[in-house]
Structure formats: C-alpha cells, structure tokens
C-alpha cells in the first residue's frame, strides 16, 4: 500500500520512494543503507550539502547566544555511498517547540515506514 506524505511517497509494492522536498527524485527502497533523523541549521538549507550544518540539541558549534532556527529531516544513506536529504519541516522551526516535536514525530514515522519497506 502506497504511503503519501507532503514530502515523500513510499511505494513498497513497486519497491521505490519519491522525495518531493529535499534531494528530489525517485529511488529504490532496496538501495537504502541507513536513515538518520537530523536537524539542519535553517540559514544553510540549500546553500551547502544537506545536513552538513547540523543543530544538535538546539546548539550549533558556530552559534552565539541566539538559538538558530532549523529544519527537521532525514538523511538517507544509500548503499552506493550517496546521501539523500528529505526535509520534513516546511519552514524553519525552533528547537523544542510544538512544531519541532510534530516534525520529529513525522520524521520518526517516515523513517519507520522506510525501514519496514526496505
């Protein structure tokens, strides 16, 4: 049964998934190696390799006194070594906010579905 989200479509029957927000394209479920839920600093989205600038526990190594906004997403490592990005957050969120927790829960759900289908 196909599972559709705003940012990804997972089709276990056809053994593929389609990323809509992130590294757009269609990929094979059989090629997935590992999946990680990560937070990317919002100011770097689209300006560098996805999830290169991570926010860990609301703190980045380069941050000052202000907490940076971030995007919650999935980093999907493929068996060929390529890394795919799937953004769950539709807009920048603050760490530990209600929207952040909602996006993390959505990311956990998508990760679980991808792991079961792969």
Query: In which order are the strands of the major sheet placed?
Result: 1-2-3-4
Q: If you average the pLDDT, what whole number results?
A: 91
Query: In sequence order, what are the helices and strands, one letter per element?
Result: EEEEEEEH
Radius of gyration: 14 Å
* Percent in helix: 10-25%
What does this structure look like?
The protein is of the alpha+beta class and 118 residues long. Helices cover 17% and strands 32% of the residues. It is built from one helix and seven strands; from the N terminus they run βββββββα. The protein has a four-stranded antiparallel sheet with strand order 1-2-3-4, with helices on one face. It has a three-stranded antiparallel sheet with strand order 5-6-7, covered by helices on one side. Strand 2 (8-11) and strand 3 form a beta hairpin. The two termini are 14 Å apart.
List its salient traits.
7 strands; alpha+beta; 118 residues; 4-stranded antiparallel beta sheet; single chain; 3-stranded antiparallel beta sheet; 32% strand
Short overview:
With 118 residues, this protein is α+β, with helices and mostly antiparallel strands.
């Amino acid at each position: 049964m196909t599972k559709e989200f705003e940012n990804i479509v997972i089709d276990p029957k056809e053994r593929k998934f389609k990323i809509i927000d992130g590294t757009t394209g269609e990929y094979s479920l059989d090629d997935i190696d590992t999946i990680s839920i990560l937070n990317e600093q919002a100011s770097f989205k689209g300006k560098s390799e996805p999830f290169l600038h991570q926010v860990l526990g609301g703190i980045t190594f380069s941050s000052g006194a202000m907490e940076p906004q971030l995007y919650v997403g999935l980093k999907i490592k493929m068996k060929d070594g390529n890394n795919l990005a799937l953004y769950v957050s539709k807009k920048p969120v603050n760490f530990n906010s209600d929207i952040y927790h909602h996006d993390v829960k959505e990311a956990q759900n998508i990760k679980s579905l991808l792991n079961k289908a792969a």
